[in-house]
Amino acid sequence: EHAVARGLAFRDQGAVILDVGGESTRPGAAPVSINEELNRVIPVVQGLADAGATVSIDTRHAQVMTAAVEAGAKIINDVTALTGDPNSLDAAAMSGASIILMHMRGEPGTMQDDPVYKDAALEVRNYLSDRVGVCEATGIPRNQIAVDPGIGFGKTVAHNLDILGRLDLYKDMAVPVVLGVSRKSFIGHVSNGELPKERVAGSIAAALAGVAQGVHIVRVHDVAETRQALAVHAAIENAIR
C-alpha cells in the first residue's frame, strides 16, 4: 500500500511512467530469488495499473517480466538488455510490451571491478544498436524499443562523463533514449562527495545536459524538482528559437 501510494504521488508530481523493481542492481548488490522478486513487485504493479498509471517493470528475469505484464505493466525495463535470462527475449516478444534495453558490463555484484573500454561512448552505443537488431529479429517492433546507456553500470567516472558528453551518437538509431543519472555516484565524485540524497542538483544538471542532446526519457527519484527544471529548460529553449 505504501509503495502504491508513493507511486501515485510521483504521478501527481508529473511522472509519466512509474518504474517498479524488486531487486536492487546498484553496484555490489546481491541477487534475490525469483519468488521474492515476484512477491515484492506484482501487488505494486497491479495496484498502480488499476489506478490508471503507466507502469514499467524493472527486472532481468523472464518469469517476472511475464507476470508483471499480466498484472498490468506496459513496459519492460531490463538492465541486461534481455541477455540476463535465456528466456527473456522470447518472453518480452510474446508480452507485447514496450522494451527498454540498458547497457551493463558484468553483474551488479562485480560490475565496478575495474571496467575497461577503448571508447566507452561508442562501444556502449554499438552494443545497444546490436541489441535493437536482435530484438527486431525476434519480433519486437523498433517503435516499441528504447535504449539506456546505463550510467554507472560497469563504468568509471571517466566512462560515464564520456558517454554523457557524446549522447548525440544515438541520434541515428531512431529509438528513444532513456537516461538514468539520478543520485548516481559519479555526481559526488565530480562534486564534493555528497551522499545520494544530497545529489538532487547534480542529478538535475546531468538530466538537462542529456535532454539538450536529445534524450527522450529521464529516470529520476526527485520528480517535482526535475519537472520544474525541465519546464524552465523547455521555456528557454522555445524562447531562443
How would you describe this protein?
By secondary structure, the chain is of the alpha/beta class. It is built from nine helices and seven strands; from the N terminus they run αβαβαβαβαβαβααβα. It has helices at 2-13, 34-50, 62-70, 88-95, 120-138, 157-165, 185-190, 200-212, 223-240; strands at 18-21, 55-58, 75-78, 98-102, 145-148, 178-179, 217-218. The strands form two sheets. The chain has a five-stranded parallel sheet. Strands 6-7 form a two-stranded parallel ribbon. Strand 3 (75-78), helix 4 and strand 4 form a beta-alpha-beta unit. The protein is globular and about 45 Å long.
- Total helices: the number is 9
Helix-strand topology string: HEHEHEHEHEHEHHEH
Task: Round the Cα radius of gyration to an integer and report it.
Answer: 17 Å
Number of DSSP strand runs: 7
Q: How many angstroms does the end-to-end distance come to?
A: 45 Å
> Fraction of residues in helices?
40-55%
Oligomeric composition of the shown chains: single chain
How would you write the strand order of the largest sheet?
1-2-3-4-5
- Profile the largest sheet: 5 strands, parallel
Which overall shape is indicated by the principal axes computed on the Cα atoms?
globular
Structural class designation: alpha/beta
Unreliable runs, pLDDT <50, ≥5 residues? none
Query: What fraction of the residues are assigned to beta strands by DSSP?
Result: 5-15%
What is the average per-residue confidence, as pLDDT, rounded to a whole number?
95
